[in-house]
Every structure is written in C-alpha cells, then in structure tokens.
Predict the 3D structure of the following.
Amino acid sequence: MLDVAGLSSRYGRVEVLHDVSITVSRGHIFALIGANGAGKTTLLRAISGVQPVTAGRITFKERSLNGVKASTRVKMGLSQSPEGRQVFAGLSVEDNLRLGAWTRSKADSDRGVQAAYQMFPILHEKKGLPAGSLSGGQQQMLAISRALMSQPDMLLLDEPSMGLSPLLIDQVFEAVCSLRDRGLTVVLVEQNANLALSIADQACVMETGRIVLTGSGSALQADPRVRELYLGE
Amino acid sequence: MSSMLDVLSISIAFGGVKAVSDVSISVAAGAVFSIIGPNGAGKTTLFNIISGVYIPQDGSIRLNGKDVTGMRSDALAREGLSRTFQNLQVFMQMTAVENVMVGRHMHERSRTISQLFSLPGAVRENRTSRERSRELLEFVGLGSYADRSAAAMPYGALKKLELARALATEPRMILLDEPAAGCNPAETVEVEKLVRKIAGSGVTVVLVEHDMKLVMRISDRIHVLDGGRTICEGTASEVQRNERVIAAYLGDHGRREAANA
Amino acid sequence: MTADLLQYASSGVTIGAVYALVALGFTLIYNSTHVANFAQGDFAMLGAMTTVFAVAGGLPTFPTAILGTMVAGVAGLLLYRLAIDPARSSPVLGLIVLTIGASIFAKGVAQLVFDKRFHSLPSWFDARPIELFGATIQTQSLVVLAGTIVIVAALATFTTRTLLGKGILAVSQNSLAATLMGMNVGSVVTLAFVVSAAIGGLAGIMAAPITLTSYDAGTILSLKGFAAAMLGGMGNPVGAVAGGIVLGVVEAFGGGLISSGYKDAFAFLIILIVLAARPQGLFGSVARERV
Amino acid sequence: MSPKHSRLVQLAILIAIIGMAPLLVPSNYYLRVMTLIYVFGLAAVGLNLLMGFAGQVSLGHAGFIGIGAYSVALGSVHWGLTGLTSAVLGAVASAAIAAMVGRPILRLKGHYLAVATLGFGFLIALLITNEAGLTGGPDGIAVPRPVVFGWRLRTVEQWYWISGVVLVAGVFIAQNLVASSTGRALRAIHDSEVAAQAIGVDVARQKLKVFVISAVYASLAGSLLAFCNGLVTPESTAGFLKSVELVTMVVLGGLGSVFGSVLGAAVLVLLPQVLTVFHDYEHLMLGLLMVLCIVMLPRGVVPSLARKLARTGT
Amino acid sequence: EQPIKIGAVLSVTGPASFLGEPQKRTIEMLTQQVNAGGGIGGRKIELVVYDDGGDANAARTFASRLIDEDKVVAMVGGSTTGTTMAMLPAFEEAEIPFMSMAGALQVVQPVRKWVFKTPQTDTMACEKIFEDIKARGFSSIAVVFGTDGFGRSMRDQCVSVAPKYNIRIVHEESFGPKDSDMTPQLTNVRGKKDVQAIVVPGIGQTPAILARNYRQLGMTLPLYVSHGVASREFIDLSAGGAEGARLPVPALLVGSSLASSDPQRAPVLAYTQAYEKAANQPVSAFGGFMHDGFQMVVEAIRRSGSSEPARIRDALEATKGFVGVNGIYSMTARDHMGLDLTGFRMVEIKNGNWSPIVAGN
Ligand SMILES: Nc1ncnc2c1ncn2[C@@H]1O[C@H](COP(=O)(O)OP(=O)(O)OP(=O)(O)O)[C@@H](O)[C@H]1O
Ligand SMILES: Nc1ncnc2c1ncn2[C@@H]1O[C@H](COP(=O)(O)OP(=O)(O)OP(=O)(O)O)[C@@H](O)[C@H]1O
Ligand SMILES: [Mg+2]
Ligand SMILES: [Mg+2]
C-alpha cells in the first residue's frame, strides 16, 4: 500500500530523517514508536506532503508521490490526524468536520458527520461551539474524526491517544481495529507503545531519524530492548 | 500538615456550559495532589481558575491561607504559584535557556534604568539568571538543548522546558497539566522521577494527568472530576476501586494500568 | 433642525456605505490570510479610474463598470500571486508593509497609465435628488446603499453557509491543517483576493459619482475601511458594514454639530471609546485562546 | 559570535560610520541626508523596541515625533524656553501622554491595537493642524536655532554631530534593554502573554514601559528634526504617512534588530534621493522596491541576511 | 559654453500635486522653448526638478541638494507655502535667488533679500471677493474653508480684511483636504438665516465636491470660491454645481475674452496654446504662476548678462512692468511680489465657462 524508500528530510540545515525505508501492507495497522525527537512526526509529514524530502521516494497505491501536491494526496486516499491536533479553533466543531470532507460530496460529508457523532457523542453535544473552546481531549477526538471525514484508504495518526482519558483510549484503539477490519490501512505513531504494539500487525522503532527495528507488533513487544527503552520495564 | 491551597466551592460557566461547578479541594503543603477525570471534566479549567487565567463566578481560593480569589496570574506567581500548560505556551522565538530565564524575571531586582545603561548590577544579575537557568535545564534533562531555539525542539522536550521555566520562578506550589503527555512509558518514568524530586524539595505539586500508572504511583491524594463536578476524592487505592470512577473514566484498560502501578 | 439632522444622517450613511464596502473587502482578505491589506482602497481607485477612462473613451457606463470591477479583481490576483504568496514567511507586520508598498506601486502605475487629475463619473441614474422632510438625498447614495446591502448579504451567506466560504476561514486559522484536509490553500486564498478586490473595485465605481476619484484616492479609503472593519470587529462582514456606517454617521454628525475641522477626530475617538469597552469591536467575538 | 560580541561590533560599526562620513562626503547636502538618517533611525530604533521585541504594533508613532517637534517649536516661540529645556519637556510630555493613552489601548491586540494607535496619531496631527493660532497650522511654524551653553547651533555640521551622538546613545540603550531581563520579558509577551503572566511577568506594566520608552525615542527624534529643519509642519512630523514610514523602516530593517532599524531608516531616507533619476517612475519604483524587499528578505534586511549567511557559512 | 543651471522643487505628487504637476509641465516646456531659441546669450538652460511630494522635510533636503550638489544659480518653485517656508532659510543662507509659487503673504513679508513670489496673495483674493460682495449689497457672509495651508491662510486673511469692507463673517465651517462629502457643513450654513453669501477659501478639487453638494442641497445663496480652484477641472468636476459661482482669476483663465487692447492677451494666448498642446490638458492658474516666475528669472538672467546668483537677484528685484499671464509685475526692494489687484479678474461661471463680470453687476 505504502512504500517509503531511502527517505531523507531536513529542517534548514539539520537533517532529521536519514535513509528511512518502511513498507506498509494494505489493511494492516503499522505502529511507529520511538523517543521524543526521533523523527516520527517528520516522517508522517513527509508522507502527507507537507514536509520537503531531500532524497528517497514514497510510493502509495503503486503511484509515486514525489512531486504530488499535499491536496492531491488527500484525494488519492491519504489522510492524517496531525500532532498537536491542529483544529480550526475559530470554526465550529461541525464546520471542522465538514472541512475534513473537503474532497468529498455533500452526502459523504453528512454520513461522515453522523459517524463522528456516533463515535464521540460529546462532539455532537458541542457541534455548534468553536473548536478552540474544547478541552484537550475533546479536540483530539475532533482531530481524529476530522481525518476520517475524507474516507481515506490510509490513515496516518500522530499520537492519537495524547490527552485522552484511559476509557477513551480504549475506545479509540477499538475503533482503529474495527476500521482496519473494514479494510483501512493505518499508520499509528504512538507513545503508548504497549497498546500500539498490541494491536499492530507490523511495527518499527525509530531512533534519531533512522529505523532501527522492524517486525510484527507482538515480536517487538517481546524484544527486550524495546521493553527496556520504550515500555519502561 | 498545613494546607497550601484551598479551593472553596468554585464554579464557572462558559455561555451556559458549566465547566466547573461547586468544586472544593484542599491541598496539603508538600503533597502531590492529582486531579483526574474524563475529557472535558473541567481539570484544565480548574487550573486556569486557580492560576488566575479565569476569574471564578462563584467561590473563593486561598493560597497558603491568603485569599487570592480574582488575583491576576502574575501576582499569584509572586505568591509562589507556578504552572505549565496543556496546550504548550512556549516562547517559540527564544532559545531554551532564555525561556527559562523569563521565569527568573520576577526575582530580578535591578531597576530599568540600570538595565538601560548596562550597569554592573544588571550585568551581574543577568549572569546569575543565566547560570541558574542552565542548571534548571540540566535538572529536567534538557542540558543539551540550552542554546537551541525552542521552535526546533520536539514536543516532548517542550513539555519539559515548560517545567523548567515554571521551576525558575521558585514556586511553593506548581500546577502541572499533563506533563507526561507525548511521552512513552520509559520517558514517563523520567517525568515521575522529576516530579518526585520537585515534591521532595518541598514544592507542593498539583497534577493533571491521564497516565494512570504515573498518577497512582505518585499521588498522595487524588481528586476525580466529571462534568465539572467532584465525584470522589481519596488515595490511589480508594479511587481505583470507586465504581463511578471506573465507569466514567478508567474503563478496563485504565483499571488494569492503575492496578499494575 | 430635524431637516438638518436628517441631512447629516443621510450624508453619513452614504459615505459610511462606501467605507463599509472597502471594509468588506478588508474583511475577506483578513479572513483568508490575517493580513490587513492596505492596498484595499487602491482596488477602489483602480476600478473607478478604469471606468472613468473607459467612459471617457466612449464606452457605455454599465459594461465599463463590469470592466472596472474585473480590472480590480485582476489586480487582486496579481497582488496575491506575485507578492503576498511569495512573502508568506514574513511576519504579519511585514505583510502590512508589503501591502503599503503595493499601494504605492498602484498609485505609481495609475499616475502613469491614467493621470494625476481628479475625475468623476456621472450618476448611474439621471434622476433628481429626493427631498425628504427638508433633507436632500442623492440617487447615487441609494445605489451605493443598495449595492452594500446586496454585497454584504451575499458575502455573509458565502462565508457562513458554503463550505468554500468556511474553507477561506480555515486556511487562515491553520493552513497546515487545511492542507491536510486536501485544500489547495493557494487557490482558496487567490479566490478570496480576487473577490475582495472586485468588491473594492465595485465600491470605487459606485462611489465615484459622489466622492470623485484620482490616482491617490485609495489611501484614505484604505484607512477608513480598515478603521471601519476594526470598529465592527475584524473578520465579520456584518460588523464591517456596521463599522463603516457608524464611522460615516459619526463623521457627519460630529462635523455638522460640533466642529468640521475635527471630523476625523470624532471618528477615531468613537473607535477608541468602543474598543476600550469592547476590545473585539462591535460585532467581533472574543477569540480567547485556550491554554 | 556571541550576542554580546555582535552587539558591540554593531555599535562600533555605527560609530565608525558616523565618525568617517563627514570626511568621505563633505557637502552640506550629504551631511543633511546623513543627519536625517540618524534622526529617523533613532525613532525607528525606539519603535522597534515596541514592535519588534514586544510585538505591539503602533501605526501612530509619528504622533510622538510631532509632540517632540512642536514642543521645541512652541517652547521657544511662545514660552521663551531654551531649546534643550523644551526638548526635555517634550520628551517628558510624550512619556506622560504615552503612559496615559498606553494604559487603555495596550490592552488591545494585533490589528485592534493598530487601529487605536492609528487613531491616536491622527488626533495629534489634527490637533496640530487645527490649532493654527498656536501651531501655525498646516503651513507650519519656524523653530528658532537653539543656544546651548552660549553656542548658537545652526550649521548642518553641528546638527550632524548632535544627532549622531544621540543615535549612538539610543542604540546603546536599546541594545542593553533588549539583552536585559525587561527585554526578555517583552519577547516573551510577544510569544505568549498568558505564559509570561503565569510566570510572574506583569504584562501590562512591561508593555506600558516599552511604549513609554519608544515614545521618548520618537519625541527626541522629533525635537532633533525640528531643530535641524528650522521649520515644523504637521505632515512632515506627525502625519499618518510618517507613521507608516517609521513602521516601514523597522520592518525593512528587520523586526527585532536594533541595527536593522538604523539601516531601515537609511534605506527610506536615501531611496527618494536615489529614485529621483526615475522621474515619473519614482512612486512605481518605491512601491516595487518595498514589495521586492519583503518578498526577498521576508524578515527584514538584517535578520534575513544573517539567516542566509548562517546557512551558507560553516 | 556651460549651461545655466536652474533648480525647481515642486509638489508633483501628493496632496498638492494639482499645483506641482502643471508647474512641472510648464517649466519643462518653457525650458525647451528657451533652449530651442538658442538659450540665454548662447547658453542653454539645464533644469533640475525634484518632487517633494508636498513634504516640507523632503523639500528642505532637495533644497540642500540643489544648492550643494547641483549648484544651481536660481531656484523656481516651492509649490506650497509649507514647502517654501522650509526651503527659504537654505536659499537665504546660500544667497541664491528663490522664486516661489506659494500663495501666502508671509513668504515675502517681511521682505527677504533672496526670495520672490508670483501668485497674488490671499489677501488680494479676499479683497477682490469682498469688493464684489459689497457691490451686490451684501454684508453678512459665511466662510467655509479648507483646513489645508492655503484654505487656512486665506481664511485668516479674509477675517482680517473683512472689516475694511464692512462685511461680517457670521458663520464659519471647514473641510479637510481629503473630505469626500461637505453636506453637513453646507446644511449648517443653510440653517443660518442671516447668511447672504458664502465664501469658500479652498484649493484643489475638494471645493468641487462642495459645489456639487451645494447644488444637490438646492442652495441658492451667492457662492464665492477662490483663485485656488482656478482650473477647468473645477468646473468639470462640480458637475454643474459651480454654475453661478464667482471667483477672482488671473487673466490666464479668461484668455479668449480678453480685449485685444489688453496687454496680457498676447502672453496669455501664447502660453495657453503652447501648454495645451504640450500637456494635452487645459491651463490652470498654478501653471501660470510658474510661467511668470520662470520667465522673470530668464529675463533677469538675460538682462544681467550673467549667471551670478547675486546679479540675477538684483535683476529680479529690478523687474518693471513684466507682463505675465497672472498679472503685471513690478518688483521693488520692498515688494518682492510686485502685483496689484488689477491682475485679478472677477468671473462668474456661466454655462460651464469663465465669464467676466462687468463691474457693478
Ligand atoms: N521546525 C523545526 N525546525 C528545526 N528542527 C525541528 C523542527 N521540528 C522538529 N525538529 C527536529 O527534528 C527532529 C525530529 O522531530 P519530530 O517532531 O519529527 O520528532 P518526533 O519523533 O515526532 O518526537 P515527539 O515524540 O516528541 O513528537 C527533532 O530533533 C527536532 O528537534
Ligand atoms: N473558554 C471556553 N469556552 C467554552 N467552553 C469552554 C471553555 N473552556 C472550557 N470549556 C468547556 O469546559 C469543559 C471543561 O474543559 P477543560 O479543558 O477544563 O477539560 P479537561 O478536564 O481539562 O479535559 P481534557 O482532559 O480533555 O484536557 C469542556 O467541555 C470545554 O468545552
Ligand atoms: Mg511527534
Ligand atoms: Mg485539560
């Protein structure tokens, strides 16, 4: 589904991704874990086309994404819920959702909004309020729902559990699993490594801009190095 | 132990939404006091009220016995209250060490005039501030970032930067809003050590956090909010057994985490 | 005396409507980029001057009005594509200076392409002024007023009812997120600039029969339009119109009843007083950032 | 280069330029142009403290130039004060007025502050224009040459040196302020007022402080301008276009770069002189250059070039 | 032969561009004429023109530039009183003759050795207007003046000469140079019962808006405007509103209706024809000021047979009976303007044209 090969990227003069290669299979959950500053966010940004790459190539659904505009990538079925939530603070919750369906028809948009309200009833309660007035966790729910509005084939989630209550984390992870079961491919960047690895079909560990380990979710979960460095055991 | 912070039945509403209603808490000096609750329970709002960002529509707040209701946050900082933010409020155009130095601002005594002409007093003070700030960065584990622009630091580091900055004010009480958000379990352990050290140095800590392992291990007392109201308060073991807390907040996963803590 | 008051009111509303139209253009560009566009008045000048010269060249009024509007729209397109967009990494103040530069440039071009003299357009309808309780109302004032109402209604509907309108707000609030939603930020903002400039041009064309126009008529319009937009609450089309009308009326009454020399002073005093009481303007909403 | 080091280098460059210029360009005309650069540079440096560091916009700062200019004019014409006394009184008056209007308007944010300061500038200009009995109205009023310690200051050269020295002092003080704890607090306010306040910065007070300081800079620049022109008019001191010019100087030179403001002033004073070769195309060129400057150096000359150097350098 | 350098600092752009623009065109055209005719005593004129944009500060700098860098021998221009006053000291100090186009009396009174001017003073315009008002039997008037330099100065002059004509100013209003609506002011005037005529000291195009508003309000009081609007544009822009308004204008504006015996007829027709051909726009009084000033300077250079500034100045001061388009000038050591009231002709705007008023009507 997604193939990243030899990717490098930099901020100014500092290169933060060095020769990164990953392959994500269709219908899988791919978990990406790593310490603060490892470059996970940068990688997701590069895949979405909002971060320039200096070398390497990204292939999505057998098509090269090099030189493809970010907005086109969304139309191709790639969607991201970014780090730090990035809601449109001054617009209402519902408008935020509908903007998520920018590339979709009105009917799709209506359906998506209903689905979002079903998954997170609080969003329905707050639908007319500016997104900026929501609590941190509520904004996170909005960001995730908004990313789903474009009915993507592949969803990039950057720390979806951040700021969510334990109950909601369960719920979000369940939702991610059921989305996968319906054929969606998910790239999951998570600090909640245990949980992420436990639902991941494939996973990798990133350290200072490089992929240092790859394997199935359960294999990594069992890896002593991972247990020490990322699971805090 | 005397009480450091007394919140007496405060309430606030935003255009009809009661974000916090009739909440009272009392935090003992030197304690680690946690506030937990589902998303939108009113935890951050409570912090905003205590730290003077919002003025409560009802109720009063006492800090170390003194009534501080409605006081501006800079005045509260001078009373020994400091905080970090859930939505990062880092000074992005400054370096890490400068961020922390701003925290020293209220302790800097030199007059504007002396600063304008760079008189020795001001110069000396500047140097001391810088040294102290570097120490604090070391303390939170950001020593290597000192001269980096904040804009180029990863999320997790920024959270710690806010912590160092808050500590620079030499607070007697510190409010931490999700300090471990964006940290993996290993990093969370670091945060825990840090919080313990802070509490150990006599600073009262009020903590909002969704990481149940951290909360259960570190808290002397835990206060649980839901929908702006208190649902219970108690020690870690009391809280994690409370059915309402489990239903509204912990869920299965949370309960397991809490139990394993 | 009532006749006098009515006269002040009518004159204030007319001028206010012109300010309002410029303020509307301001609002739209602000909403899409958070830039205060100090070349907004120059769109009005370009529209009016083009029309003046086309009419002088023998073309009929209405088609030339469309031509003038289009010229202004193209100017808006160029402003965004050639200047604002390439400079988007500049701080907001840099962009303000850039629009001021663009405004000076527009004046420089206008004085070469057109001339430095004052010009007027004939009223759109050749009817006698209307007498109302002793006050006189020009027919062109009614044109301006009607135009303002139509444009604000259209604009308000556009921004609050359509996805595209909300897209314009979204790109300014968070262009990264907008991009991740699949929006082509560049095209959305270009659209906002073109529409805004066209509104400005139309404002100039409708007002020219009342206020005259010349190559440097844009500056004062930009200023008053900006002031009106802020008075009404930046970003709110209804506020922009309210701000414009209030400004015009205050000027007329202040000038008529108190002192004509301090006419502008009253306008700005009112702004200061209103902002002291409502820092977000008359119709603005308090955008309190959550922390 | 450490920040402190680079500050000293900048100051040294400035002193060298001021000291050498009269040797290189001996004519009165060039001296006058340089003097204007120093005078407007002073005002721009002050405004930069407010805009570049504290992030507070002022579109009416020429109002304070007007106050400074007219206080020396009126002081000596109507009230028989010496030039120096009236300049000092002008600065005091500017500070007092800034403190008074600053309190309410600095609560406003962004463009709202811009429109409020714009209004303030307008009010001052209108007052000067309309109170013709006192101020001479739009045609202006002559400023007698001041006598300082028995010297009548009248030559271009004398004013060259005086403005040069005042500018150096102004830059020195501004640099110190920026590097001081107040300077850090101001930059912090620029980025996040809530956070600054939460860690003990009295935001309102700091903003007011820098507003007053920048007003004093502008006022002194106004007094100098009045003295070296010998005539003050409302438009050439307090007018809106002057405010815009000041903002442009600060932005072109670079928000947050003290030295940049002097450079920005130089650009804006020199441009009209250079552009005379274009005759009818002057305006067109001026506007075009402003636009190009921002497009190519979006952060202003000094910071953008510094960035580019840092990128290409080692 | 070295060319003779003459400088000009004019407000070609900015709020006073309606003054500076025709002045620039005039001086460029005349220079060409002189040079085409072989120059002055075989020496060509080299013109240096700067645009001060109406800013006194800029004017002052350009003055220095003309003196120190360009080393001109004479200076023509200074379109407004403000810019002129800013430049005066520089030319006085450098001892270079300065022929100004500024209206206000203060430019030449007290007399400054090196400074001359061509336009009639505001006082003269007021007197001319008051003469006419008195002749029509009115005695109480309203003044609606512009708050720019010209309007304010003329208003002050009118106030001070009014008693001489037994005229009472019973009401005053003002308008800003950028105002686009004067209905409120006129409404106020309309409400005053004892006003018999309105005098509008104002310059440029703003009075045209006033005239329009005046007409729209259906006002019928006699309307007097100033020589500051003496250009065709005023009539055109007022869209019929100026019909019936009276004003003092220089002979230049009523060229074709000047009697053939009128000495000004020949220069007026010559300038009008040349200017309208060169500039492709109607003449205005402001260009006329420059015409006269420049010609007098050229004459002075010719007469003195020298390009010494001091000699030019002396020759300028010795100007006697110079017939210009604006008036007939005779300078003296005590009068550096050299005009009397005869230069002004009172006209009424009739059928969209200037129409001379026969005395006593
Ligand atoms: N805007 C920027 N300018 C310069 N460097 C940056 C910028 N953003 C990130 N970096 C650097 O890039 C590296 C990778 O950052 P990135 O945000 O991708 O890490 P991450 O793995 O997502 O970390 P976290 O878990 O904290 O979110 C870090 O070293 C960071 O300091
Ligand atoms: N300024 C505001 N305007 C409107 N509603 C607000 C505002 N601030 C808070 N709220 C509402 O008050 C409630 C409490 O929000 P708060 O941020 O305190 O929650 P929280 O407990 O911190 O949640 P989280 O764990 O998600 O951070 C939410 O429903 C939120 O939408
Ligand atoms: Mg990240
Ligand atoms: Mg919260």
Remarks:
- The longest strand of chain C covers residues 130-132.
- The mean pLDDT of chain C is 90.
- The pocket of magnesium ion (ligand 4) is lined by residues A 135-136; B 43-44, 86 (CB under 6 Å).
- Residues 2-33 of chain C form the longest helix (32 residues).
